[in-house]
Each structure stands twice: as C-alpha cells, then as structure tokens.
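To: structure desk
From: M.T.
Subject: fold request, one chain
Message: Could you run this one when you get a chance? Sequence is below, nothing fancy, just the single chain.
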Amino acid sequence: MERKNHTILAEFILLGLSEDPNIQSVLFVTGLLAYVFTLAGNLAIILLIQADQHLQTPMYFLLSNLSFTEICYISSTMPKMLWDLVAGNKTISFDGCALQMFCFLATGATEGALLSVMAYDRYAAICHPLQYTLLMSQPMLRWLLAVSWAIGGLNATVNIAFVFSLDFCGPNKIVHFFCDIPPVLHLSYSDTSLTELVTFMISGSILIVTVFLIVLSYVLIVLSVLKISSAQGRIKTFSTYASHLTVVSIFYSTGIFTYMRPSSRHSMEDDRVISVLYTIITPLLNPIIYSLKNKEMQAALWNVLRKESHCHL
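Reply: Done. Structure tokens follow.
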C-alpha cells in the first residue's frame, strides 16, 4: 500500500490486555459483563431522566449527556476487544485503527469537557442560586454541550492528522487492546517528536483547562459551603459532590499519567493495564456512583417501577 511515496502498513495486530491464551476466556466474560452493565446502567440513567419530570433540570440534563458520552466512549474500544477475544482474529485495518482512535479521543475529550461543565453547574447552583436559572438556561446548556463536543472533535482531528501522517512499515503489533496514541507512535519509524509535541499541547491544554475549571469551581463551592452554620448541612452538601469528584479523580489521574509523559517514559505493558481504569472502569462506575448515591434518582426509579406495576394490575 502506497501513500505519499512511502510504504505503509495495511493493518495492525492488537495484542490485547494479555497474550496468555489461558486467560482469554476469563477476559472475554469479564469484559462482556462490564460492557453490558455499562450500557444498561448508562441507558437506564438516560431513560429515567427522560421519564421523570422532577429530573428535568440542568444538572440531570448534563448527567444524561454524560451517560450518552460514556456509552459512545466505551463502545469505541470494547466491541473490537471482545470480538478479538472470541474470534481470535486480532487484526485491525490501518483506516479502522484511525477511526477507532478518532472516536476514542473525541468522546474522551468531550467527557472531560462535560465533567468541567457539570462542576460549573454545581458552582452556579451553590454560589449563585438566585441567578441559577439564567446561568444554566436552555440556550446556555445547548451552547455548553456543543462546545464540549467541538472540543472533542478538535482534539481527535488534530491528533489523528499528525499520528497517521507518520510512516509505518516495520512492526505492526500494537501492545494494547485498542488503537491509542502512545502504542501506535511506538511502531512508527518516523521522527515522532513533532507529533508528541502536538499531542502534548492539544490534549494537555484540554486537560489543564478542564481540570483548572473543575478545581476552581470546587474551591468556590467549598468556600461557600463553609459559610453554612450547620455542620450537618455542610456534610450533606459535601457528600452531594463526592460522586462527581470520584469520577473526575479516576478519569483525569489516569489520563494525565498516560498522555502527559514523554515517550521515553512510556511502558507499553503498564499503559494498557492503567488504561483499563479510564476506558472501562470509569464508564462502568458512572451509573453506580451517580445513581445509587442519589436520592432523587432513587425516588424517580421507584416512581417509574410503581407506575409499571400499576399498569400490569
């Protein structure tokens, strides 16, 4: 296959989470269960928010969009990984690899942007309750959502353009279970320094800006909550945001560790294990963290179940 007078690979081979044949079936069952529960949990959140009028608020509008993004995010990697495990054919075409990387990077950056928007929503609700409906109006929500997806698309487009403009003609085994930037760059015989710099600047800027906005929002929230005279009231308010901070901590810590290091410090073996946290565990935890600890979501679920039971009587 020729491109710009350089020979490139027609396909790559994804080595998966492990090359040990004895645990392939275990990985498949575990991965399938994680994927099914992630899809079911996040889809349940979306449907529940749509079904209950009490959840028609900016916070739950953002939560439903986060759940939709999580479904897209995990679906960019898991179906291919599960197919590789059950079929034993671990090849992926050059264009297929580029498409998978695009979807993964786009949804990943969009999720990061949405997490910062959710932090801003909580800041507006706590620190500016009288102006909340204006600050988080429907036009503003749609604009923030559009900007989040635009950020994701920009991140993916720029990174894909640089990564796949490199030359690949030697080894084609990707030490990972999906086409991520570090393991793909590792296979190129071109000088990858410019691509690494662009990745660092684009992805790094998104990480830094979104993390800064989240931290700033929560610092202002904490300062506001500390003014509450009741200790019980402060604890109750803090516990409300623990779920969001948990998701943020897992998502960003692993993302920063993976993408903000120079290639010389990358261990392909470590990266594919760590990536499980932000590609599989975080989407799986989202419905658990946001639903089981949320009294409004629990009440909405019981209302829906009660209506269903009455309909069958």
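Reply (cont.): The radius of gyration is 21 Å. Let me know if you need anything else for the meeting.
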